[in-house]
């Protein structure tokens, strides 16, 4: 499935406003295939140098005997000024247009666009995440041992230069705050993660920028979901320029937003 879908006129995490599907897929049932369905959501901003390769790597997973049915790849073009959307569509992705900037907003648009799938995998579009780590991420979830599985780059192997010092320090601080305030034992807040779509929708997330990743973990813990992490491998970005780690000012802004999001989640943890 490929093409371009229009932007959502209104985005909302309100569970009451969203029809949460049952964990079944009529098409797979008709084929006698009881594997759960999964879609990838990949937010992208000016990633024309990398996005086609990322989509190709994801689609190649279909040849690897996955424990799930890969039903689609949704690339969310978050207001790119280059050929990100065109290259993603040509590579076989469904392109979702979300012109209003914001990492969390782009992820939300993709989650809503993915439709009635059982599971979602989220990853970045710069070529740093390795899609072939999907099976390891899925294992705790499919075994009934976890509800949200986060890929830890620091527990896995990462190429020299793929995680800059400010990223490592920021991850360490965020992970310690999540452990201290929510009791979640994570070592990283990396972008590659999997969860049931209905669980993500029920979290009622509000963060539309870089605090998205930590808000997901914090809200999951607050609602009693089991958060696990598994090691994943991480590469240097395949091309282009990082919107955060490559810029000191942007890194500081992102770090502030992440910390503020964790503290806000703790302060409002008794509220829906």
Task: Write structural notes for this entry.
Residues 1-34 are annotated as: Disordered. It holds the Pfam family Glycos_transf_2. InterPro entries: Glyco_trans_2-like (IPR001173), Glycosyltransferase_2 (IPR050256), Nucleotide-diphossugar_trans (IPR029044). It comes from uncultured Thermomicrobiales bacterium. The chain is of the alpha/beta class and 272 residues long. The protein contains 9 helices and 8 strands. An 8-stranded mixed sheet has the order 1-4-3-2-5-7-6-8, sandwiched between helices. It is globular and about 45 Å long.
Total DSSP helices: 9
From the alpha carbons, calculate the radius of gyration and give it in angstroms: 17 Å
Secondary structural class: alpha/beta
Identify the strand order in the major beta sheet.
1-4-3-2-5-7-6-8
CATH architectural designation: Alpha-Beta Complex
Distance between the termini: 36 Å
Uncertain stretches: 6-10, 12-30
CATH fold annotation: Spore Coat Polysaccharide Biosynthesis Protein SpsA, Chain A
What key phrases describe this protein's structure?
alpha/beta, Spore Coat Polysaccharide Biosynthesis Protein SpsA, Chain A, 8-stranded mixed beta sheet, 36% helix, Nucleotide-diphossugar_trans
Topology (SSEs and partners):
Elements: E1 3-5, H1 26-30, E2 37-44, H2 51-59, E3 69-77, H3 84-91, E4 94-97, H4 103-113, E5 119-122, H5 134-142, E6 148-152, H6 165-182, E7 193-196, H7 197-202, H8 212-222, E8 227-231, H9 248-267
Parallel strand pairs: 1-4, 2-3, 2-5, 3-4, 6-8
Antiparallel strand pairs: 5-7, 6-7
Organism: uncultured Thermomicrobiales bacterium
Biased composition (Basic and acidic residues): 21-34
Pfam family, one: Glycos_transf_2
